[in-house]
Amino acid sequence: AFSIEYYVAGSGKDDFVKCFDQKGVSRASLMKNFMAINKFIEPERAALKPEKRWGSMTLILHSNGKFKVDYDYSDMTENAYARKKAWKKKYLA
């Protein structure tokens, strides 16, 4: 199982819009694009040795084309709610 979502920075420092809350972007369009992204990412992850597989990947893409990727190798099955809350605090605050 996996989940993919993104946030778009707004005008304020802590102003982010979740992908599913964007105006003019349909859920069907998002899901189609997420599946296309997963077709690229999942084979790359699956090719790694189990001990090298990441549980979470965060891609930060800037409007100027620069980007940063962070990988988390923690067991994501434990306390998913707390992990997502901590992720939001780290990346969206």
Give structural notes.
The chain is α+β, with helices and mostly antiparallel strands and 93 residues long. The protein has helices spanning 27-46, 80-92, and strands at 7-9, 16-18, 56-61, 67-72. The protein has one domain. The chain has a two-stranded antiparallel ribbon. The protein has a two-stranded antiparallel sheet with strand order 3-4. The longest helix has 20 residues, at 27-46. The radius of gyration is 14 Å and the shape is globular. The mean pLDDT is 85.
What's the short version?
The chain is an alpha+beta fold and 93 residues long.
What gyration radius follows from the Cα positions, in whole Å?
Answer: 14 Å
Topology as a string of helices (H) and strands (E): EEHEEH
Distance between the termini: 27 Å
pLDDT under 50 segments (min length 5)?
none
What key phrases describe this protein's structure?
4 strands; 19% strand; 35% helix; two-stranded antiparallel ribbon; single chain; 93 residues
Topology overview:
Layout (H helix, E strand, L loop, with lengths): L6 E3 L6 E3 L8 H20 L9 E6 L5 E6 L7 H13 L1
Antiparallel strand pairs: 1-2, 3-4
